[in-house]
Amino acid sequence: NIQKITKSMQMVAAVPEDKKKYLLIGVSSDRGLCGAIHSSIAKQMKSKVATLTAVGKEVMHVGIGDKIRGVLHRTHSDQFLVAFKEMRRKPPTFGDVSVIALELLNSGYEFDDSSINFNQFRSVISYKTEEKPIFSLNTIASAESMSIYNDVDADVLQNYQEYNLANSIYYSLKESTTSEQSARMTAMDNTSKNASEIIDKLTLTFNCTRQAVITKELTEIVFGAVALD
Question: Is residue 37 part of a domain?
């Protein structure tokens, strides 16, 4: 009997522990010309992936916006769950993000933890890359605030999770859209100023060159007239 027990314990101990699953969502857009706003998201997500994989977690990406998909797909193509694009052609609505949330929850990937990375608007000239946690179904079910209810069925928990995910994505999209517009305005303003400086320098160079040519021609005319006399 002891041998059977120890043998069973050995078999249980030999079973590898399941990796914790982490869903990492990144929010960008489909357009550029807005400075380093997209690369800052990619940099933060790559750092997060390195940290999570170092502790043995399985990480899957979700890209909202073609820019973040393009950057991460080159190095983490095997870790992409799904990507969404053409989401920012019009101002985001809660109905749009509800479709995204539902598709993620119906993808079959049951994550233990999750977070969404986005740019948070601070002022017209600045933004900050942030990370917002997203709660899994188990986290919601075991929350202390849920214990005040006598009975919460699975459908209610599923609705809570879907709303939490949609609300987080909606907030992130709104903040990212505002940050992108301000960053693009700043980038275009700087470009316009640089273009004006280049035009001024080229105009000065042109005028100096033209003046030099005119002076040279006048000098040649004068010397020619003197030679004839």
Answer: yes
The CA radius of gyration of the chain, in Å to the nearest whole number, is 30
What CATH number corresponds to the domain at position 26?
Answer: 3.40.1380.10
- The DSSP element (H or E) to which 116 belongs, if any, is strand 113-123
Segment 10-56, tens digit of pLDDT: 654 454 556 789 999 999 988 887 878 889 999 999 999 999 999 99
Contact 180, 124 (CB under 8 A): no
For 206-215, the pLDDT digits (tens) are 999 999 999 9
Answer yes or no: are the C-beta atoms of 29 and 54 closer than 8 Å. Answer: no
Q: Which two tokens stand for residue 181?
A: 């517009």
User: Which two structure tokens, joined as six digits, stand for 135?
Assistant: 């709660």
Alpha-helical segments (H) within 34-153: 37-54, 66-76, 94-105, 137-141
Find, among 172, 162, 182, the residue nearest to 107 by Cα: 162
pLDDT, tens only, 145-158? 777 776 777 888 88
Q: Tell me which H or E stretch contains 131.
A: strand 126-134
Q: What is the pTM of this model?
A: 0.75
pLDDT of residue 49: 93
Amino acid type, 159: N
Nearest to 180 by CA among 24, 8, 31, 23: 31
Rounded distance between C-alpha atoms, residue 56 and residue 47, angstroms: 15
Average pLDDT (174-203) is 87
Residue 138 lies in a domain: yes
- Count of domains observed in the chain: 1
Give the range of the structural domain holding residue 87, as residue numbers without chain letter: 2-184
